């Protein structure tokens, strides 16, 4: 029994969550996890391991094989996979990207197949077939064919337009070019023609077309600088370095052409930061890691050219693997609409069955004994009833709205264009309009409950700005003049006296400039001197201008600030740094750089001034600046202690003199706090999911007003304790797994108070029981298990799953009680997991917004994904449903376009069902007077054109243009959005109200004309009570009624709406008189049989009186109910409409005042710091320095900064 337990997969609970680290990579293998912990190897395992080592070695994680310059190698049979029956394809993907669905030959069959997968379309196709059977149909075949062709045609055109756009996008990417070795020389080739094993050449500013192994480059030691914004959202540059042997031997074209290296590496996966492999070349093996791999989506920067070997292509690349599965998204209304169509199917079947039974009974009682009804057929009443069942299925088919789906698609398409055309969501600075990348989700924008947002680049600009500083106890940065007098309005500082100033720094404290220029306070100059020398920033010159490239944005902001204040960093070499001190250039020797790491959280340099004194400068990452002078012998002694480097750093960084501190800001995007506040008033909860550290995330929470000083913050350990207590309570009540225990919903927190949750990725895994699992290393015995053991193991797994599910549900319930949730240090997979948990357990509509490739999975998981097209590339936009340039546009997307789309779609659906019920159920009432014979109450052509011409345009325009309040009022009163969250405007209750309204309208439409036609004589002595005149009267009253009804439903009147309503009525009468004319009857006598009916019936005043009476009885009760509803049970929208003139004159909504409390200190912002070791080693080693250049021309860049080569002076 112990063996069974040991072999189970168990949760690793040995380690405490670490808030400072990002959890395991999404695709870590069991072996990698096993390697992370040092455990004592059992003796039996040692014996087994030694036995395994005697076998042929095999690395199961390195099964991907690549042969350089040998395409035939990858076409061998054992690399082929069976795709379909005997059709095989290589396991190595080609480099072409395919997102389109159709081609010239497959469009028609595939599109028709997809359209007929819709139940409604298939239903009408079956009806069309049934109508071709004379014994069944009493309705002409064209009454179904014309609307069906229209629906199929419009949908096909829309699908074609969308697919053509996808073809163009694919073609643009696939036809990009780069140079590939072919026939011993580099030749230009398209991306789609690149294959695994090809050797390619890339130039500066080229996109990397595939995942490649860097072989060599134009830079020293084959360094290559890349921008990874498309991958990880980071705008700073990173450096990659090739193997020393490939740098040495693979620089020329001829050697690259003969390169025959062989690579064994890991299979394609989504781990952007890991790579494991081995290069076999020249009878030697060389280990490969992620630092030698250039990933697809990167951009080559500041490197003239580089060479690489393609390892993964196309769909196998890490960016494609990391993009997550594309999900087909449908709105909540879509699902509800489908269920309602199914309900209509059931009602239609029941009505047809009931009427068929009625016909069988009538045949038995009346039809068989009425000689004048004999049709020459001797069928039994039951058989006639069976035939009539199908006849009524055809007659009543318009209960199922054939044009519903295509009308919905047209409305959504129009709404999408309105979003694209909205100039208030256009970002002029970057010429970026809003873009609806899908046309199927617009109304769901008005039902959002939860927003999941990335931080950097989404809430913030990802641009650091120097704001203030404190030097020798004096704070600088307020609005004041050179005499130290404060002013509310003062001009910016003029930096024109400084030739190196970039003109981008907005600073208003003229007194600081006075202090720098006068030199009265030597600490002020010393402060900016330290900023200019203590860093790892790189510099180059372009057109005489200095360009800085920094390891982190804050570092670049500080060096830029020093530059503007007169202390400009000019150049550096391996051992020196040159700066301009108020116009005087000085070069200092750099003896050592004590690099930043996450433990010390600071960096220092040890330098020697021209006067031969050694000084140590320190920039703590809390932005405090310190210095001291040290003896030369102390420095020499320190540098010889490599075995205790960190200890040496600590020794040197003692007894420092504090000089001052800086205040820099990662500025929020414009309007972020206002947007969050408005969305909160709409009862939308915002969760921030970020990979940044906890302190960073918390500071951003305060900056964007998700958190206030009154907020009680709960951290991971607090949440863990609460959830543990809840699980214990649930277990004590009868067990988490008790089937019949009544659910008890108890709040986690006492009522009142403002609470927020801040949790790290490590704690998230701990709480949700999502920690990576390890297999036990104890030997698994090979004897067979008993049935009892198998049962116990299955039960154990079920209990673990049930515990995990309950724990996750409890966490979601707890988090949703908080006003704000911030998840930090989370992986892309965890972001998607959090979104999925809320979708699963709260059944709420979710929206995810981000701007980096690491947000793609989250964006695809949410009901609606929004991409910010900003600093961090376009990968998030490619995964999104909607995109724009600034976070503040989200409020307009949801509160204006979302709300309008929701109310328009709800009104459209309610009216659409109503008008079809009112139209179709007249046949039902008519059946009681025609022996249930499936005789139609209207002319065939009226049935054909009713949904196509007579009632389609007004409802479409309402679905496109209607609005209950203006956009300004919608933004001013975000509480309107709550109606959509609660599904109040369209649900089953509203559906049945529409059904009942349609039933009552159909009764009025039938029985008032019926009563008027009984025993009547026309004014000219002719009887108007014939069937055809009766059909014309009902049809005329129906068209007028349903068009007047949509007028009552319209809130926003325009000329177009009015024209469509009255135009539809006029169109009906015009077409009817043409169809009933004698001329068309002569041409098509069997198709147009109502000859002269319209002109004969409608010249009778009695008929017009009947029509007016019918329309009045249908409409007046609706008017009365609407009046009572708006006066007694007025909704929020009704109240706003009533007072809209007064509201327009009032002051617009203002941002709420921040709460000031005594004793509450301002929060230190530290959220732009680098979280990894800097690049001091790269600088001090000289690996990136061009040996033959002078020091001022030796321009290098660190791993996240831009590297630019300059020409010889």
Automatic annotation (TrEMBL):
Membrane topology label: Multi-pass membrane protein
* GO biological process per UniProt: apical protein localization; bile acid and bile salt transport; bile acid metabolic process; Golgi organization; inner ear receptor cell development; negative regulation of DNA-templated transcription; regulation of chloride transport; regulation of microvillus assembly
The record's subcellular locations are: Endomembrane system; Membrane
Entry cofactors:
Mg(2+)
Report the main location listed first in the record: membrane
- Stored InterPro entries: ATPase_P-typ_cyto_dom_N, ATPase_P-typ_P_site, ATPase_P-typ_TM_dom_sf, ATPase_P-typ_transduc_dom_A_sf, ATPase_P-type_domA, HAD-like_sf, HAD_sf, P-type_ATPase_IV
One cellular-component annotation, GO: apical plasma membrane
Q: Which CDD domains match?
A: P-type_ATPase_APLT_Dnf-like
**Which segments constitute the P-type ATPase N-terminal domain?**
67-145
Q: Which domain of life is it from?
A: Eukaryota
List of residues binding Mg(2+): 454, 456, 851, 855
What does the record give as the reaction this protein catalyses? ATP + H2O + phospholipidSide 1 = ADP + phosphate + phospholipidSide 2
Could you say which EC number(s) this protein's record lists?
7.6.2.1
The residues that the entry says bind ATP are: 454-456, 555, 596, 621, 690-692, 825, 831, 854-855
Q: Which UniProt keywords apply?
A: ATP-binding, Lipid transport, Magnesium, Membrane, Metal-binding, Nucleotide-binding, Translocase, Transmembrane, Transmembrane helix, Transport
- Region of interest (Disordered), ranges: 1-54
Molecular function terms, GO-annotated: aminophospholipid flippase activity; ATP binding; ATP hydrolysis activity; cardiolipin binding; magnesium ion binding; phosphatidylcholine flippase activity
User: Where does this protein have compositionally biased stretches of type Basic and acidic residues?
Assistant: 43-54
Positions of the P-type ATPase A domain = 174-237
List all membrane-crossing ranges. 116-133, 139-161, 339-362, 389-408, 911-929, 941-961, 991-1015, 1027-1046, 1058-1082, 1102-1130
Q: Which residues form the P-type ATPase C-terminal domain?
A: 877-1129
Q: Which residue windows does the record flag with biased composition (Acidic residues)?
A: 25-35
Q: Which residues does UniProt mark as catalytic?
A: 454 (4-aspartylphosphate intermediate)
Q: What class of enzyme is it?
A: translocase
What family does this chain come from, according to its entry?
Belongs to the cation transport ATPase (P-type) (TC 3.A.3) family. Type IV subfamily.
Name of the protein: Phospholipid-transporting ATPase
Organism the protein comes from: Rhinopithecus bieti (Black snub-nosed monkey)
